[in-house]
Structure formats: structure tokens, C-alpha cells
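Next comes this protein:
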Amino acid sequence: MSRSRPARAVAVLLTALALAAAAAALEPGKPLPPGPEGELLAVDAERARALIDADLTALRELCGDELRFVHANGVIETKYVLLAALESGRLDYLSIDTSGETVRVYGEAGVVSGNAVVRVRMPSGKRRRIDNVYTAVYAKRDGAWRLVAYQSTLADKTPAIAD
């Protein structure tokens, strides 16, 4: 699907505004790293915010059509299945608190990994806390970063034992 130049410019402007808002929410007063690393941290924060708010409009822009989203329980969803789950309420993120993020940029691709404490409401109505480690892979297209792969894994809570 091809966009007109004005529509593309509006999309880029809206993405920039959303990134600025997401950056402020990361850690107020703490500047983001310069360049694409900071852009990716802001986009990843916007991804978390959009999931919590079930902001389907933002997620349609943030996610590439080929997205493969692997949940900590091993369930794999495409972009469209993920959006439908959020829209129906089957998937209900209450909060996502990330920490320890690392960012790597490889030209037009970038990887954000870190820890996440995710609180969800299950379809039964029961709330659950899930401690994850995650990796999010982004590709830069038309001047904006798009989530193309995401995988989370339950965090190991076993204390480290020295040899």
C-alpha cells in the first residue's frame, strides 16, 4: 500500500510527537542517548504504552506487517492477531515496567533487549504479574522504526550460586 507524500509526512510527524512523549515517560529528567539508540528506546517505550492503552492506531504504525510476537508462554501472534486480541479485550495489559535495556543499531535494523515486569488481566478477570526478559527487533522504514519481531521469556528468579 503506497501513501501520498502529505500522508507520509503526517505519519512521520505524529510518530515524532509520540516518541517525544514516550521519551519523557521513560525517566523524567534523564536524557536519552543521542541518535538512533535514543530513538529506539523512545519507540520501545511507545510500544509498551500503546499495548497498555490498547492503542490500535499507534500499534498499526509501530508494528511491521510481518511482526512475529512471541509471548513468554510461547504463544506466537502476528500483528493482526495481536491487534484483534487487544481490541477484543482477550489480551489486556495493565502495566509494563521495563528496566536494564540495551540497544544495538545495525544500519536500518535495531535491537532493544531488557527486563519487563508485565501485569495483565487474564480473560477470566484474574490479574497476573509476569517477570520477563525480552528482545524487540526493529527495522527502519520511511524514516520510522517498525517492530518486526518480539520475543519474551520468563525471567529466571533463581539466585546465582557462586562456584
